[in-house]
Amino acid sequence: MTGLWWTNSALRITTLTRKKTVVSLKNNSAAAPGFSLTAVLAWRDLLYDRKVALCIIFSLTSVIAPLLLLFGLKNGIITQLHDRLINDPQNLEVRMIGNGSYPHAWFESLARHPEVQFVIPLTRSLNTQADLMTDSRHFAANAEIIPTAEGDPLLDGIPAPADNRSLVLSASAADKMQVRTGDTVRMVISRKLSGVNERARQTFTVTAVLSDSRFSRPAAFVPLPVLVAAEDYRDGFQAPLFDVTTGTAPPPRTQFAKGRIYARSLDDISPLNDWFNQQHIDVVTQKSQIDSVKAISYVLNVIFSVIMWVSLSGCIASLIGAFLANIDRKRKDMAVLRLLGFRRKAVTLYIIIQALLLTGIAFVIGLSLYLAGSSVFTTLLGSHLPDNAFVCRLDLSDILIALSAALLVALSVAWIGALRAANIQPAESLREI
Predict the structure, then answer these.
(1) Backbone dihedral angles phi then psi of residue 135, each to the nearest 5 degrees
(2) N or C: which end of the chain has fewer CB within 10 A?
(3) Which pTM does this prediction carry?
(4) Domain extents in the chain
(5) Residue range 124-154, pLDDT digits in tens
(6) HEC secondary structure over 346-381
(7) pLDDT tens across 324-341, in order?
(8) How many other C-beta atoms can be found within 10 angstroms of the C-beta atom of residue 127?
(9) 68 and 370 in contact (C-beta within 8 Å)?
């Protein structure tokens, strides 16, 4: 190989003359080179023949960088869509349309379904609103009153109200009343009984404030008995929870108009939707939106898979051609290495080390170009995205997988070249002497 010189200690040939002479290499006593010497020679050869090495590196980079960007975009877009669906519990909600009459046993049976994450009874729609206020200037009119309990997906780990004198406010309602955790608010409900307009008030302690990302409308999350008491009051019965003791005592609550129902996962929405249809119960879900995201994910996976395999096929073919051509070009130099004591395994290792070095350098350059391209995408498109959103993203694990795949391809190609180089005989270096 150009730049490699024979040494007296390595080359031990018994007799060499211009006459007809038999040269035996079987008893060559030169010690087989170690890994360090092989690695140094492979690196120095790349430095000496740097123009060819750069051509191979740039050809690899031209495949690696676009692939990293493509998969970064796919990972960024699909991950955002999927996470947005998962992290928004309202996408898991199965909303019942209209009012019915469902006993406690029906809700208990529904809660045992493997697809159901959370279920709690609801009163009639007209009775799920009330006015919240701290004073005459700070109030939330017609705020939603939503029953809750432990395990409510909307609360996102926030403890449910512990008693019938506490509630959780949405951020929108808290902002309107300018209250925070630990403050008190008044709930006001009204009715018309015997032609007389009446109002009932009760004071509640705010135990937590729910972020807008979980629930954006003005609302108060209360224990179910509070909502039942509000409905009883509007129906003209007593409501001890609102300090209303006049009138007739309400009958035992054995049935409810509907319920708050949440699926366990996105994949459970469709089975639940089908189950309610079989029960002839009208419900509304985000099934169409979920199916759209899944369809987009599938299409993008197919597109990127085709692009990946086409790019990899072209890259492998290009690398095989480049390595085989390089081996043929350096056939005489390979023969000299064999003559210097390099066994077939050493020559194979020599070629593999060069392939790994070239691929590693190309991957570092490709990764740098990916980071630059990712920054450009974020800068140009970041203003059109919500906070903490990303367009192009690869995790460390993704990068390590990509590096491993690139090195595996390089090893495969290098092995093909090594099989060709292994057939080079040491005597080929003597033909032109």
Answers:
(1) -155, -175
(2) C
(3) 0.65
(4) 35-84+293-430, 98-281
(5) 988 889 999 998 888 899 999 999 999 899 9
(6) HHHHHHHHHHHHHHHHHHHHHHHHHHHHHHHHHHHH
(7) 777 777 777 777 777 777
(8) 19
(9) yes
